[in-house]
Amino acid sequence: MSSQKKARRSLGGGVLRGDGDGQGGWRKAGGGSQRPGVERLANPVKNPTQEPQTGVLFLLVVTLWSAKKGPVMIHAMIDSRATNNFIDREYADSLGLQYHDFKNARVVQAIDGRPLKTGPVSQWTEPTRMWIREHMEEISIFVTEVPHFPVILGIPWLTLHDPNISWTNRELQFASKYCQNHCLVAKVCHATDAEPIITLPKKYSDFWDVFNEKEAEKLPPHRPYDCAIDLVEGAPIPRGHLYSLTEPEQEALREFIESNLRKGFIRPSQSPAASPVMFVKKKSGDLRLVVDYRALNNITKRNRYPLPLISDLLDRLRGAKVYTKLDLRGAYNLVRIREGDEWKTAFQTKFGLFESLVMNFGLSGAPTTFQHFVNDIFQDYLDRFLIIYLDDFLVFSRSQSEHEKHVRMVLQRLRDHGLYAKLEKCAFDLQEVDFLGYRVSPLGLSMDPAKVSAVLEWRAPTNKKEVQRFLGFANYYCKFIPDFARWSDPITSCIRGKQPFRWTEQAEKGFQQLKKLFMSQPILQHPDPKTPFVVQADASDVAIGAVLMQPVGEHLHPCAFYSRQLTAPERNYTIWEKELLAIKAAFENWRHWLEGAKFPIEVHTDHRNLEHLRTARKLNQRQQCWALFFERFDFQIHYVTPAQTKQADALSRKPEYAAGRRETFESQLLQPENFATLTVGNTKSTAVEPTSSSPGPLCAQEIRASQQADAWAQDQIRQGLRFPFSLKDGLLCYRNHVYIPPGPGREKALHLCHDCKPA
């Protein structure tokens, strides 16, 4: 029996009322049927003709918006005699709600008239959104300790919305003029809303428990599909060292341990094994704990259960006209670690050693174990009206009436096996849907717009250099494009000779036509899981780019393009990290094709140091997180010349990415104004005449010698220089300014520039 059912059976007192006005009583919830289009109340009454004079509590499912967790479905109680709305403080804290203080605290009394032991109510919440199906409002709630249920809605709420209550059918409707004008989602769901409006369709409302976040936090039972961790015989037990954590990370670690101990997901351990922990930032900015299981994975026997072929899954969708997409909540946490293997998952922290009772992200066998689990549970539904890839479910049907039946069958199966869906990531009754990298509709499969947006959004060139980059990208595919010269010649004519650059109407027409042709067959082909994948990745100062390709005959055909601007923090990364970030972003974007690929993925990069990614020892915390991410993929990095990565290079240097660019090497280089007298010219003469306070003349020979001894400078030269780097008279320059490595030479240059007349 769930905790909420127990609570309903044990209700015997404890109604809250404010300032001594009114009182209420608890009534037990009952069952019953429900008509569509109305809210069902949980409490039947003995006299259906009138509201009981003693007051009644009703159980209602509502959704509260949490800035910390997004939409959260909870139970709220409607108390017809409570003189205010109340929320339990512990629950409000877990949602991250913001509070305001009352000038004068409010006295709250229990049913017997005595003040609550917790004292007067002194705070109320910042207005937050609350949904009851299609009804939405902004609500502020008194904060106190509420028994049994997290929220109580009292007289102020009932008075404001004036809902129609059918005591016979236990139904509630929002039909007041106020609600019609202010609360119906159809009236208030504008495109400018900051948060998405997410509701469970009425026809599936009896499955609200399948979307209950609280229930999903319970420890699952042992099943035949528990995650087994079989170690290689004789392998040494891994025991890592503690990683240093920032203050926010330490606080997040404390919260993680307290929360997961409370759920029963982890327990204190005395294991001889110990893996370190680290944190990665989610898109929301929140921190997510990751256990570094790389050492454990290296001595774990691989689970060879196959992941499904995406092409086979998509073939099953022929003839379907209606789609529903479901996403499981806490997917891997729904599977237990095999009994007796828990000690192998132990992770160490400053707060002690703990081991996991549920499957964690980062374990090598997690994806295949989970796929085996869901495949067996839904075996009789697969390929008939359901396809599953890990935690992504797609229900498909030929008609709307058939589809409702299929969705209900899937939801019932989830309920039967104690599995829960994440409402905020589900979508119901769609005519077309994006799934596993494709746009699926009754017309068939088409490219997901995200796969081609990197090319479609390419802005027209504004100078000769940008034209050259685009043509470098286009020329690679000229062998696949009929009449390529017809469309490219007007573009090429813009950079012929020494005439000033002018972008003509004919050039624009050819530019747009070539972009369209890049999106079509035979240029852009559907990925074939039976063929090896090649990922070409590159980074510039301001952006990253990648191309997913597969060999066809003697040529590599593109399957998808990807590019994006670097964020402000990412622009401060080293060149090594930017190149690695390009590969990581490509793997994330095409995960559904690359994770579990039949053949090792071949990664092409022009940064030679990345070949040693898997054997590098000294990594910072960010790189450690990335290395853990790469453990999910079977790939090999190959160094190729810059000429062989022109496509990815061009995507990372599109014109639109140059706007607002910010240089990242100021800490390594002299500022431009410092070069008023220090120039690269005749190497036989001194660049400046020092004053008496200068340490001595600085010449090109000294700079060249310091560059030859500087590992970073030599690394740039070995890789093959690209803009903004160049060699002039044997000296490494950045945007035509000389690079002076750290050391006596840099100090001397600063003195020279400071003491010369322009300074």
Helix and strand arrangement:
Blueprint: H1 3-10, E1 17-18, E2 39-40, E3 57-66, E4 70-79, E5 86-88, H2 89-95, E6 99-106, E7 108-109, E8 121-125, E9 128-132, E10 135-139, E11 142-144, E12 151-153, H3 155-161, E13 164-166, E14 171-173, H4 177-182, H5 185-188, H6 247-263, E15 266-268, E16 277-281, E17 287-291, H7 294-298, H8 310-315, E18 322-327, E19 347-349, E20 352-356, H9 366-377, E21 386-389, E22 392-397, H10 400-416, E23 427-430, E24 433-435, E25 438-441, E26 444-447, H11 449-456, H12 464-475, H13 484-492, H14 505-518, E27 534-539, E28 543-552, E29 555-565, H15 575-589, H16 591-594, E30 601-605, H17 621-630, E31 635-639, H18 646-651, H19 655-658, H20 700-708, H21 711-719, E32 725-728, E33 731-734, E34 737-738, H22 744-755
Parallel strand pairs: 4-12, 5-11, 27-30, 30-31
Antiparallel strand pairs: 1-7, 2-14, 3-4, 3-9, 5-12, 6-8, 9-10, 13-14, 15-20, 16-17, 18-22, 18-23, 19-20, 21-22, 24-25, 25-26, 27-28, 28-29, 32-33, 33-34
Helix pairs in contact: 13-14, 15-17
Q: Key features?
A:
Cathepsin D, subunit A, domain 1; Alpha-Beta Plaits; 5 domains; 22 helices; about 25% helix; single chain; seven-stranded mixed beta sheet; disordered C terminus; alpha+beta; about 750 residues
